[in-house]
């Protein structure tokens, strides 16, 4: 990743910066807590943390309007928090309890919220990409002006169904934003070991899809790019690709010994490129808040996360008869 | 205030681990993110980071200690200037509080694991192993790796391809060391493109090579299922016998622990349905090794279904230069006269445990491990049922169109006159795998269910 350009006169406001700070910090602290609960055995199975990538979802959600849709992979906790889902319900799903978004039946990788137009949490790499185009298809069909943010990783970008989807999305001018969260690794495989045309956003060109690469450690840059993409989609010009350059600080999942990259590599990005630090600096430089005021925000966020963790521990396990519910719908689904 | 640092769970299947090395010493100041220790889990050595800041007051578990249970306090973190010993004592006295958490953890989050191995974890008849052969305790993981390594030494056309098989040494560490020995030409990391590399493997087999294609898990082989069935399984037939497809598709199958609906399916019955495929699902390490070697040499496409929970289990494996096990031969693990229990793969763990429990009640079960599902050794099952007159089948997969259903049909057609009770199929429940610990336990087949079924067919 290139070094960040110094923010000359960022096009933002005090309120916006503080909101970004809060939202990104919430994701980070939430994920740290999830990691802790995993270590204690309260969360099981696969748990993929979003630490390092916070600016991607926070920036893009700032470009979304009420009613817009989103769908992503198993690395989904950040997306859910950013689109306004309740940290308590997300954490309780991680612990597999009744109070979770899927009543404890889905877990970390499979969560949904119809209310927040969050269409999952998908465990199969790449599967969410045609699904995202399908959501956009339904919006175009209904002519409701909505767009769908379809998130996927650099590894997922190589799945065949991504290419198939690009073709259909452009063919039918679907209002879908393909967001490639390029964190440079798919599990232990770096982009350069798996991919011959490493500028993922350029792959849209062969289908005539517009796109660009974005600095994903700069939440303001992400938001600006998101606004451009949204405008493109809402104007009926079809899909748009955003390749967002980001980095995951933790292992792929909790059980990744992470021998494929050096600690120095991780440390360097944490120190020089961290998205939360960036906003913090902008806030302090602009004198939008004092160190003490920021500490106060940190405290509030910690309290929210602790409350979520308490809820997730206290919420009972699902009733045993839930095993056999939700396999078939009794009445036609009322999908928005 | 002092905080206890607990032995962390670092993988879905970890219950205990080795505290390999401390990277900090007593008196060191640590902050969140610092690496405290190296911990060996059931599959890898992991670095363990601090989540809180403070001074490392006391190390409670020495480096090198094996078998440290998850959630055991391993060290105590104190605040700057705090008296370490007093703080440690206080923390230990306050332990009930920590304990409540620990209990919730084991109640709510513990991994469902296959029952412990029964004492005599060796089949009664091992026709493939000559009398007097030396045996060596080996994990299923090592046995699979050894099988691939031996076959790759034997035949230059054998190569291994899949996600993370080379540099990462396998997502589940099955291919550990293979890249070093055989190089990047023969141990190949692929992009995440299952349909693509499965099809490419089929083409390579048509072209005269002997591919081993690893799916990180068989759940992801659904992305590739068209190439497996339409291309690999049917081409010999469609070409009038001209062109076969010698390829092995292998990887973990079925539920691991708490990985939920999209990562927990057992595909045994799916693949066993397809003419043109051979389907293998071993239980023991010896079978894993002998059958994988046979699979690699077989001139047909072979689906080789492994199990993540079994990877770390040790079994006796014969020390032989070239140990293979033929397809289509079941193995009798235990002889008995009252009821025949038929299973395969991880179902065997539940079945052997059930047989132990039944013996205590005076019911003598004969336990048969099918080992290969296609070809299926129905003769051994029929032979046994002629003796016991009762049969229970055990598998982890869904109940509808299961392997058990098929065996029941075979017994009805070929051993009807010998049956004294309807065959019972013990299976996973007819639901997608739930994530919640309590529901997951219910969804899986258990030894208890097998015991109850055996009582039912013996009318006890
Ligand atoms: C079809 C399929 N193949 C393999 C896997 C196993 N797997 C899970 S995540 C992952 C890496 C994905 O990397 P990327 O798309 O870059 O996303 P990131 O994890 O970096 O967010 C792999 C191989 C899977 N879940 N689904
Ligand atoms: Mg990635």
From TrEMBL, chain A:
Q: Which reaction does it catalyse?
A: N(6)-[(R)-lipoyl]-L-lysyl-[protein] + pyruvate + H(+) = N(6)-[(R)-S(8)-acetyldihydrolipoyl]-L-lysyl-[protein] + CO2
The biological process GO terms on file are: pyruvate decarboxylation to acetyl-CoA
Q: Which residues form the Dehydrogenase E1 component domain?
A: 23-319
Protein function = The pyruvate dehydrogenase complex catalyzes the overall conversion of pyruvate to acetyl-CoA and CO(2). It contains multiple copies of three enzymatic components: pyruvate dehydrogenase (E1), dihydrolipoamide acetyltransferase (E2) and lipoamide dehydrogenase (E3).
Q: Write out the entry's keywords from A to Z.
A: Coiled coil, Oxidoreductase, Pyruvate, Thiamine pyrophosphate
Q: Report the coiled-coil segments.
A: 287-314
Q: Does the keyword rRNA-binding apply?
A: no
Q: What is its EC number?
A: 1.2.4.1
| Cofactor(s) required, per the database record | thiamine diphosphate
Q: What class of enzyme is it?
A: oxidoreductase
InterPro entries linked to this entry: DH_E1, PDH_E1_Alpha_Subunit, Pyrv_DH_E1_asu_subgrp-y, THDP-binding
Q: What is this protein called?
A: Pyruvate dehydrogenase E1 component subunit alpha
UniProtKB/TrEMBL annotation, chain B:
What region holds the Lipoyl-binding domain? Answer: 2-78
Return the annotated region ranges for Disordered: 89-138
| Entry's EC annotation | 1.2.4.1
Which terms does the UniProt entry file under GO BP? pyruvate decarboxylation to acetyl-CoA
What this protein catalyses is: N(6)-[(R)-lipoyl]-L-lysyl-[protein] + pyruvate + H(+) = N(6)-[(R)-S(8)-acetyldihydrolipoyl]-L-lysyl-[protein] + CO2
List keywords of the entry alphabetically.
Lipoyl, Oxidoreductase, Pyruvate, Thiamine pyrophosphate
Question: In which residue ranges is the amino acid composition biased (Low complexity)?
Answer: 89-99
The keyword Oxidoreductase is assigned to this record: yes
Question: What molecular function terms (GO) are annotated for this protein?
Answer: pyruvate dehydrogenase (acetyl-transferring) activity
The coenzyme or cofactor needed here is: (R)-lipoate; thiamine diphosphate
**One Pfam family this sequence matches:** Transketolase_C
The record's listing under PANTHER family reads: DEHYDROGENASE RELATED, PYRUVATE DEHYDROGENASE E1 COMPONENT SUBUNIT BETA, MITOCHONDRIAL
NCBIfam families per the record?
A: PRK09212.1, PRK11892.1
Report the function annotation for this chain: The pyruvate dehydrogenase complex catalyzes the overall conversion of pyruvate to acetyl-CoA and CO2.
Quaternary structure and partners: Heterodimer of an alpha and a beta chain.
What is this protein called in UniProt?
Answer: Pyruvate dehydrogenase E1 component subunit beta
Give the species.
Rhodovulum kholense
């Amino acid at each position: 990743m290139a070094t960040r350009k110094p923010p000359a006169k960022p096009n933002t406001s005090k309120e916006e910066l503080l909101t970004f700070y809060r939202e990104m910090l919430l994701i980070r602290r939430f994920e740290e807590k999830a990691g802790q609960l995993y270590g204690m055995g309260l969360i099981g199975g696969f748990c993929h943390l979003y630490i390092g990538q916070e600016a991607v979802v926070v920036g893009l959600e700032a470009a979304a309007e009420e009613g817009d849709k989103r769908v992503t992979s198993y690395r989904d906790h950040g997306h859910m928090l950013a689109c306004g889902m309740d940290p308590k319900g997300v954490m309780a799903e991680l612990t597999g309890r009744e109070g979770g978004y899927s009543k404890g039946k889905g877990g970390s990788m499979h969560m949904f919220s119809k209310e927040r137009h969050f269409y999952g949490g998908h465990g199969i790499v790449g599967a969410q990409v045609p699904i995202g185009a399908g959501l956009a298809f339904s919006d175009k069909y209904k002519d409701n002006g909505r767009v769908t943010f379809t998130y996927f990783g650099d590894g997922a970008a190589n799945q065949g169904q991504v290419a198939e989807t690009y073709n259909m999305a452009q063919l039918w001018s679907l209002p879908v934003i393909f967001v490639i969260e390029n964190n440079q690794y798919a599990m232990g495989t770096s982009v350069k070991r798996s991919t011959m045309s490493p500028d993922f956003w350029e792959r849209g060109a062969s289908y005539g899809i517009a796109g660009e690469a974005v600095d994903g450690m700069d939440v303001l840059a992400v938001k600006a790019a998101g606004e451009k993409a949204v405008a493109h989609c809402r104007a009926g010009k079809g899909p748009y690709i955003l390749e967002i350059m980001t980095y995951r600080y933790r292992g792929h999942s909790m059980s990744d010994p992470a021998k494929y990259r050096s600690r120095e590599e991780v440390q360097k990005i944490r120190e020089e490129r961290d998205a939360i630090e960036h906003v913090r600096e902008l806030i302090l430089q602009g004198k939008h808040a004092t160190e003490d005021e920021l500490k106060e925000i940190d405290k509030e966020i910690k309290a929210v996360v602790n409350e979520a963790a308490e809820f997730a521990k206290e919420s009972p396990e699902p009733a045993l008869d839930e095993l056999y519910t939700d396999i078939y719908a009794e009445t036609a689904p009322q999908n928005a | 205030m002092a905080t206890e640092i607990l032995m962390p769970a670092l993988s879905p299947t970890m219950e205990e681990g080795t505290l390999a090395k401390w990277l900090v010493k007593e008196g060191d100041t640590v902050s969140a993110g610092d690496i405290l220790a190296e911990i060996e889990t059931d599959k890898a050595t992991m670095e363990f980071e601090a989540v809180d800041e403070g001074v490392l007051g006391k190390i409670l578990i020495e480096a090198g200690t094996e078998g440290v249970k998850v959630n055991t306090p391993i060290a105590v973190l104190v605040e700057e200037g705090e008296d370490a010993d007093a703080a440690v004592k206080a923390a230990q006295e306050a332990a009930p509080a920590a304990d409540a958490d620990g209990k919730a953890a084991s109640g709510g989050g513990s991994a469902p694991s296959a029952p412990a191995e029964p004492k005599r974890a060796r089949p009664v008849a091992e026709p493939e192993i000559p009398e007097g052969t030396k045996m060596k305790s080996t994990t299923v993981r090592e046995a699979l790796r050894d099988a691939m390594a031996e076959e790759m030494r034997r035949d230059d056309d054998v190569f291994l391809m899949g996600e993370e098989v080379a540099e990462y040494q396998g997502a589940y560490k099955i291919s550990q060391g293979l890249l070093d020995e055989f190089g990047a030409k023969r141990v190949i990391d692929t992009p995440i493109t299952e349909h693509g590399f499965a099809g490419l493997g089929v083409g390579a087999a048509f072209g005269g090579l002997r591919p081993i294609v690893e799916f990180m898990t068989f759940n992801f082989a659904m992305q590739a299922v068209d190439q497996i069935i339409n291309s690999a399984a049917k081409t010999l037939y469609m070409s009038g016998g001209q062109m076969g497809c010698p390829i092995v598709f292998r990887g973990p199958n079925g539920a691991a622990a708490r990985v939920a609906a999209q990562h927990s399916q057992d595909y045994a019955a799916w693949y066993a349905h397809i003419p043109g495929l051979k389907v293998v699902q071993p239980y023991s390490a010896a079978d894993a090794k002998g059958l994988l070697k046979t699979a690699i040499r077989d001139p047909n496409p072979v689906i080789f279904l492994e199990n993540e929970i079994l990877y770390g289990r040790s079994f006796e494996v014969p020390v032989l230069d070239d140990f293979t096990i033929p397809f289509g031969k079941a193995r009798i693990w235990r002889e008995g006269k009252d009821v025949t229990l038929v299973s395969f793969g991880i179902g065997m763990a539940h079945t052997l445990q059930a047989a132990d429990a039944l013996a205590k009640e005076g019911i003598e079960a004969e336990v048969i491990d099918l080992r290969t599902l296609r070809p299926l050794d129905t003769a051994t099952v029929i032979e046994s049922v002629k003796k016991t007159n009762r049969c229970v089948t055990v598998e982890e997969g869904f109940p509808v169109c299961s392997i058990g259903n098929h065996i029941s049909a075979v017994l009805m057609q070929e051993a009807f006159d010998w049956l004294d009770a309807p065959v019972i199929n013990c299976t996973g429940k007819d639901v997608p795998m739930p994530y919640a610990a309590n529901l997951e336990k219910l969804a899986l087949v258990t030894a208890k269910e097998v015991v109850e079924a055996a009582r039912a067919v013996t009318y006890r």
